Amino acid sequence: MIIKQSISKILIYSLIASLCFSVDSMAANKNFSGKFEVELFDSYNYESDDKSNEFNENYFRAKLDLKNKITKKIYLKSQFRFKDVNPDSEKQQRRASENPGDRSFEDEGLYVKQLNLNYKYNNNLFSLGKITTKFSKAASRKDNIWLFNEARSNYRQDEKIGIANYFSAGDVKKSGLYNLGISGFTNDNKYLNSSTVTKRDTDGSGANPGDSRGLKSYVASMDINYDFGGNEELSYHFSYLKLDVNRKKSNLQQDKISDIKGYTLNMNYKYPVLSNSLAEGFVEYVKLDNDDGDKDKDSYFLTTSLSFYFLENYGVTLGRYQENKKQQNVQNKETDIKEFNLSYNFAQESIFDGLRVITGFKREKESYNSYKNIDNIFGVRLRYVKSF
Predict the structure, then answer these.
(1) For residue 144, what is the domain's CATH number?
(2) Residue 106: partners with Cβ closer than 8 Å, 6 or more residues away
(3) How many domains in the chain?
(4) What span, in angstroms and rounded, lies between the C-alpha atoms of 324 and 312?
(5) CA 370 to the chain's CA centroid
(6) Would residue 79 count as lying in a domain?
(7) What DSSP string runs through 23-43?
(8) If residue 296 lies in a helix (H) or strand (E), which one and from where to where?
(9) 167 assigned to some structural domain
(10) DSSP per-residue letters across 38-106
């Protein structure tokens, strides 16, 4: 285990160095633009009803977004990720072990998150390739330690092979800017779903919702954005999801199989309270019918967050995530997470420009059948972002 962790750390440091060199090289090329992100986490579960959950965990994540301009209207968009690639398997192994111990930079791998060709014509944008759909807003936020990660884990619709069209109209400062989107896709479980350093646990059975060949699954979305001036902003997001289930390959009984259908309702409001201070409220509700392709399962998710930013660089956030998974003839699975954190953004003129530090506390309550557990966790997150 010690040797494995040492090798992982060497690979991580080598990756950081190579990515920084690549970013500096591409920044000199006018046809390239993008963003480079590095994140370091430390999460310490210091108190739990389930003593196997009491451990310290630290891990590393990196993301490189690239936009390669081919012509004035055509560009190639790509995203490369380095992160823990088998979190579910790790959790199962940990729960099965009597003394799992701490976790440091384990099961981290490099893979392609997005790779698509884009064509922009007036107010229309067409994308073809490996895409991330616009089903959730919470899944794309990074201003908490744990809270929004639940959306990424449970209902973000990404790593899809398909085609998308986005259309925008209106004026953000007048009647509002409207963005309409539609994407048809299938899951990427064959072409760009593998990883290096650590091999991902992939399921190529074709039995998962969204695995059906062709463009039988889709996401339709609408965003409405307002800018009232003086840093006051309001936005709404609505989306609808259908994930097709391949009935011939599904492991469920035929009379239990049904396509997943769901929707997202989201609102985000920013209001300048005082000079150099800003309050932000965020809420997202998601409902999935026939979750996992089982007509007896329904899932509900609610994410709320209230933040206050002051003195330009400081922030305090209180958030809550609630999850309720219902299944006929089975007791509901409920998860309730509360997070409180403090953040600091280093000033642009400082040597640490682009670095954000977040430290916070999480209380997680989980209940399922006879299993009930409460975890108290302290965490620190360092995030560095460089755009070019």
Answers:
(1) 2.40.160.10
(2) 4, 5, 8, 59, 84, 90
(3) 1
(4) 37
(5) 30
(6) yes
(7) HHHHHT-TTEEEEEEEEEEEE
(8) none
(9) yes
(10) EEEEEEEEEEESSGGG--EEEEEEEEEEEEEE-SSSEEEEEEEEEEES-HHHHHHHHHH-S----EES-
Residue 72 domain flag: yes
In the structure encoding, which two tokens stand for residue 384, read together?
């560095």
Q: Is pLDDT at 36 greater than 70 in this prediction? A: yes
Beta strands in the chain, from DSSP E residues, in sequence order: 32-48, 56-69, 74-84, 103-104, 108-121, 124-131, 160-171, 176-187, 217-229, 232-243, 260-271, 277-289, 297-310, 314-327, 330-345, 355-368, 371-387
CA 175 – CA 200 distance, rounded (Å): 46
Residue owning tokens 């109209």: 169
CA distance 288 to 295: 11
The least confident of 33-37, 200-204, 282-286 is 200-204
Nearest-angstrom CA–CA distance, 356 and 379: 14
Asked if residues 283 and 304 have their Cβ atoms less than 8 Å apart, the reply is: yes
Give residue for tokens 């823990």: 84
Q: In 10 A of CB 371, how many CB atoms?
A: 11
* Domain presence at residue 170: yes
At 162-219, the pLDDT tens digits run: 999 999 999 999 999 999 999 999 998 876 777 776 666 666 666 789 988 889 999 9
Token pair in block for residue 217: 């699954």
Cα-flanking dihedrals φ and ψ of residue 351, to 5°? -70, -20
Query: Which residue from 355, 357, 330 is spatially nearest to 343, judged by alpha carbons?
Result: 357
Domain hosting residue 319, numbered range: 2-381
Task: Identify the helix (H) or strand (E) that includes residue 173.
Answer: none
- Residues 6 or more apart in contact with residue 288 via CB below 8 angstroms: 155, 241, 260, 261, 262, 298, 299, 300, 301
In sequence order, the 6+-apart residues with CB closer than 8 A to the CB of 97 are 52
Please say if the pLDDT value at position 137 is more than 80.
Answer: yes
The amino acid that residue 253 corresponds to is Q
36 contacts 27 by C-beta, under 8 angstroms: no
Could you give the count of Cα atoms lying within 13 Å of 96 in the half-sphere of its Cβ?
6
pLDDT recorded at residue 32: 84
